């Protein structure tokens, strides 16, 4: 083998090793520390918008089989775990369909949860809402999926304003966050659900456009087991309102590095 051929082979081998090492490091980082997550739907408006990009803190609640891609971690139950606090925004694995969802945890083990006329009741006490005007967006197809928002208005054309009532909801521990309401729906009133040990109750902030624990599986989320929690969403790193992140003119600079409350 000539020197030039040997040099070429050595270069290829070194390149392959570098790529393999980089993939291994990225895999360890994603498994143990932070997982990237792109917001695909409007169920958490206006806390999270379609096109927000964030890293999920996987150290917050410890590790389970779902900490690895495709749920392949050889972990029985959960290790180094701590439970979420009420009000945390959490990414979890849907118990039935295997998709990753992001919602707000409102019901902890031992709690009772109910919706009455659009107001959340926890352990029999209302989580009060104080109105804060309107949340207004353009009625158009949003994000790569191209979904359209739900509006208060009965008839909306593309390009029109789409409005929802915005309120600040206060949970029993005093934490606050915005919730949106587009008018009466069947999910504004639910039965009382007692959250058993090892389970959690989740709802979306955009209450009329969220598939969550208010509806049982398989059409809804139902109660979510502790081991299905992947991590806590703490901060938006990047945000784009366009169909592609390469549309620089659609970047929402005011949301870069925005804390999630």
Describe the structure.
By secondary structure, the protein is mainly β. It has 2 domains: 1-32; 36-259, Ribbon (Umud Fragment, subunit A). Helix content is 11%, strand content 32%. The chain has 1 helix and 15 strands. It has one helix at 3-32; strands spanning 34-38, 52-57, 89-93, 100-107, 112-116, 119-122, 125-126, 129-138, 161-170, 176-181, 193-194, 199-203, 224-225, 229-239, 258-259. The strands form 3 sheets. Strands 1, 2, 3, 4, 12, 13, 14 and 15 form an 8-stranded antiparallel sheet that branches. Strands 7-6-5-11 form a 4-stranded antiparallel sheet, with no helix packed on it. Strands 8-9-10 form a 3-stranded antiparallel sheet, with no helix packed on it. Strand 3 and strand 4 (100-107) form a beta hairpin. The longest helix is centred in the first third of the chain and has 30 residues, at 3-32. Belongs to the peptidase S26 family. It is found in: Membrane.
């Amino acid at each position: 083998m000539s020197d030039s051929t040997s040099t070429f082979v050595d270069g290829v081998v070194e390149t392959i090793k570098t790529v393999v090492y980089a993939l291994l490091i990225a895999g360890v980082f994603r498994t143990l520390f932070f997982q990237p997550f792109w917001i695909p739907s409007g169920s958490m408006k206006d806390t999270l918008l379609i096109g927000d990009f964030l890293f999920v803190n996987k150290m917050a609640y410890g590790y389970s089989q779902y900490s690895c891609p495709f749920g392949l971690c050889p972990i029985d139950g959960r290790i180094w775990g701590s439970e979420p606090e009420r009000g945390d925004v959490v990414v979890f694995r849907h118990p039935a369909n295997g998709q990753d969802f992001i919602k707000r945890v409102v019901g902890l083990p031992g709690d009772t949860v109910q919706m009455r006329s659009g107001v959340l009741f926890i352990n029999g006490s209302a989580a009060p809402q104080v109105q804060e005007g309107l949340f207004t967006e353009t009625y158009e197809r949003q994000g790569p999926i191209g979904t359209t928002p739900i509006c208060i208005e009965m008839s909306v054309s593309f390009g029109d304003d789409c409005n929802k009532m915005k309120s600040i909801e206060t949970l029993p521990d005093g934490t606050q966050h915005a919730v949106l309401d587009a008018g009466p729906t069947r999910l504004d009133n639910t039965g009382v659900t007692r959250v058993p040990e090892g389970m959690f109750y989740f709802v979306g902030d955009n209450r009329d456009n969220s598939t969550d624990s208010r509806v049982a599986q398989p059409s809804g989320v139902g109660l979510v087991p502790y081991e299905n929690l992947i991590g806590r969403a703490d901060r938006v790193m990047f945000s784009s309102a366009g169909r592609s992140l390469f549309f620089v003119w659609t970047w929402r600079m005011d949301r870069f590095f925005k804390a999630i409350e």
